[in-house]
Amino acid sequence: MQDKDIIFALDIGTRKVMGVVARPQQGYLEIMESYSLEHQGRPMLDGQIHDIGKVTDLVKEITSRLQERLGFELEKVGVAVAGRNLLTFKGTGEKIFETQQEVNLELVRELELMAVESIISGAQEQLGNFHCVGYSPLYAYIDGARFFHPLGHRGKSVKIEVIATFLPQQVLESMLSVCKESGLEPVNITLEPIAAMQAIVPQDMRHLNIILVDIGAGTSDLALSRQGAVVAYGMVPEAGDEVTEAISQEFAVDFSMAEHIKRLLTPEQENANSFGPKIYYTDLWGRSQELERSKVEEVAGARAFEIADVIAKEALRLNGGKPHAVICIGGGSLTYGLVPALARSLGIAAHRVGVRLPSLIPNIRNFTHNLTGPEAVTPLGITLMTSQSCGINFIEVKVNGKLVRQIDFKQKKDLLNALILAGYSNRKLYPRVGLALTYELNGESCVKKGTLGKPAKIFINGKEAGSLSEQVNNGDEIVFEEARPGEDARASAGELADLSGTEVLYNGKSLAVYQELFINGLEAGADSLVIDRDCLQVKPPTIKKLLRQEGVELGTLEERQILVNINGSPRIITQGNFTLTVNGKESTLDTFLTGEDQVLFSLNNPRAYRIKDVLDLPESKTVISVEVNGKEFRLSREHKQIFMNGQRVKPEEFLIDGAEIRVYDAEESPVLLSELFRYIDFSPEQLKGKLLKFFVNDIPAGYTTLLTDGSRVKIILKEREE
User: Fold this and answer.
1) pLDDT tens across 452-506, in order?
2) Distances (CA, A) of 402 to 132, 412, 479
3) CA of 504: how far to CAs of 491, 543, 594, in Å?
4) Residue 85 lies in a domain
5) Which residues touch 571 (CB under 8 Å, ≥6 apart)?
6) Cβ neighbours of residue 714 under 8 Å, at least 6 residues apart?
7) Residue 35: helix, strand or coil by DSSP?
8) How far is CA 343 from CA 205, 347, 424, in A?
9) By the 8 A CB rule, do 606 and 558 touch?
10) Together in a domain, 221 and 342
């Protein structure tokens, strides 16, 4: 039986499988034993399991050999999947508040969920059958400022950026099948690039912009660090096998012999004694052959340059530019000419690109004989992550009666992650706030908010969960009641606008008239439903509304407009079949009522305008007193003279449609005797056969005789002489 402290890790690669057994000591991890075997044939391609049976057989053999050496059984194992089909995406979740809010754990988790959901919804076509197997927070932004640890800070705007990792379900299922068929229980699953980064690039190095390239047989996996965080993962399907294939084709040898020849170019991989100007091999027909080493180096170097160029392009794309340094690991990193070619393709100095060996991994001791090369970095990284339980963790829970296997890279066994991986979206966890109603009231923008809705209720084993951070355990039963969305804002016009009444005195009767309401320019009632972006306008009540309220048939009222021209300026005058005054002044039906107005309305006296109603004439006049035939008359002269359509008229004349009105200043001239006839009227019968004789102050006078104040005038009718 495997002791609980014993750590068993398997690196199932394209070329070979390596098993490592370790145990924790005080402050470090002690390697107890390791064993590796190469695949027979090619049961794995590009880091992905194709023949589960053959891979299982190899795992069984390695496990058996290790058990024989150690003297105890191995039952639990940590494994890693290649980045062949790895997809990573960055996403953000953001909330904006009206006032400053403290950032607590619940808010952070909600924003992380929003970020993951935004990735899933935004990359649906790319993801297909891919599943989120983990995410890592990168940075938090509070009011635009970046924080690594946001808890406790305050701000109006809080944004969380995460990097989420996705794998096809088939990749995980294939790995799990191999473990199951081998009689092993997978307790920890990680990704190969994550394991390698964990081992060879410690946290204190991640402030540098470093690209880790794990060059295996079938794939080259990439991991990028920057400003203290691992910010991206990637993969290219170009690695050591590509050079092997080139040698196989060029020199007509099978794949196994081509791999042997390739390794002879790097003596530390085979035997230092084999390094020389000649390479000896056996061809397809079993014949012994020899080659100039330079010819093989030429073929291998050319293909290595092509591989380096592909890796460099992907690295520069992910990184957005040149890195500070590149660390190469994996057996493929020893491929002839690859490392210097990678430096050239990246455009950085050769000393900034190099192979890092397991001896530089901190907190690991007592390497076995086959754990000294760069190919051992990844298996040791898997061992480290298994010991720390920081890979993918599997637990089984029931969510609303459905069995769900929870997977999480960082072993966040909390409720939030269980629900995410069970397929529950942010909309089901957090209620959607009802849509707000935006409208305009008298030119001012207004908003009526929707309701908040009811949050989801979640129960773990019959007890309501306190938060989404609550831990879940294997076998837990979760009951999830979806959040209820808030109601959209709805309102009638009367709810949004003040339609108060205005007190007026109408024909001596006191009554209230309510304000008028218009929606988008059309008259509406208080019960009219307001829709989003409507424009409401409340106006004081008009005479029309008052009359309608009092039962007056507005259709019977006639208002006619006439056009007059006063001193060259056109003016429209409204006349009607009724009389209407407000506070003693003539008004129209559209006059606004402002409160305590006195309104007089009558259908008995049609309304017509005189000239004096539209002209502002002075009241001052020149007045003199004269005596005519013993009777006193007071004569006046207007300071203004009015002409309508060329004829002099009095201010009391009625206006006519189309009239041309001119007003002139009267001359400052004396009053003439002829002006008496404006006051004295002689009939034609009186004047027939008669002559008029005039005397002013007893002196004979004529029509143009000047009259002054106090003048005495005699007018005599005398028979005409035959």
Assistant:
1) 888 888 888 888 887 777 777 777 888 888 888 888 889 888 888 888 788 888 8
2) 19, 20, 10
3) 30, 11, 8
4) no
5) 563, 564, 565, 614
6) 628, 629, 694, 695, 698
7) strand
8) 20, 6, 46
9) no
10) yes
Tokens found for residue 716 = 């005599």
DSSP track, 89-158: EEEEEEEEEEEEEE--HHHHHHHHHHHHHHHHHHTHHHHTTEEEEEEEEEEEEETTEEES--TT-EEEEE
Assess if residue 672 is contained within a domain. Answer: yes
What CATH code is carried by the domain that includes residue 430? 3.10.20
**Residue 502 · residue 446 · CB < 8 Å:** no
| 53 in any annotated domain | no
Collapsing DSSP states into helix, strand and coil, what is residue 541? coil
Is the pLDDT at 433 greater than 70? The verdict is yes
- Same domain membership, residue 345 and residue 268: yes
Residue 541: domain span:
492-609
Task: State what percent of residues in the chain have pLDDT above 70.
Answer: 89
475 shares a domain with 579:
no
Residue range 563-618, pLDDT digits in tens: 888 888 898 877 777 888 888 887 888 888 887 889 888 887 676 777 777 777 76
What is the pLDDT, as a whole number, of residue 271? 45
Number of domains into which the chain is organized: 4
C-alpha to C-alpha distance for 485 and 428, rounded to whole angstroms: 9
- Are 258 and 247 spatial neighbours (Cβ–Cβ below 8 Å)? yes
Q: What is the pLDDT of residues 233-267, one digit of tens each?
A: 788 888 888 998 998 898 888 888 888 888 888 75
Domain end among 587, 609, 631? 609
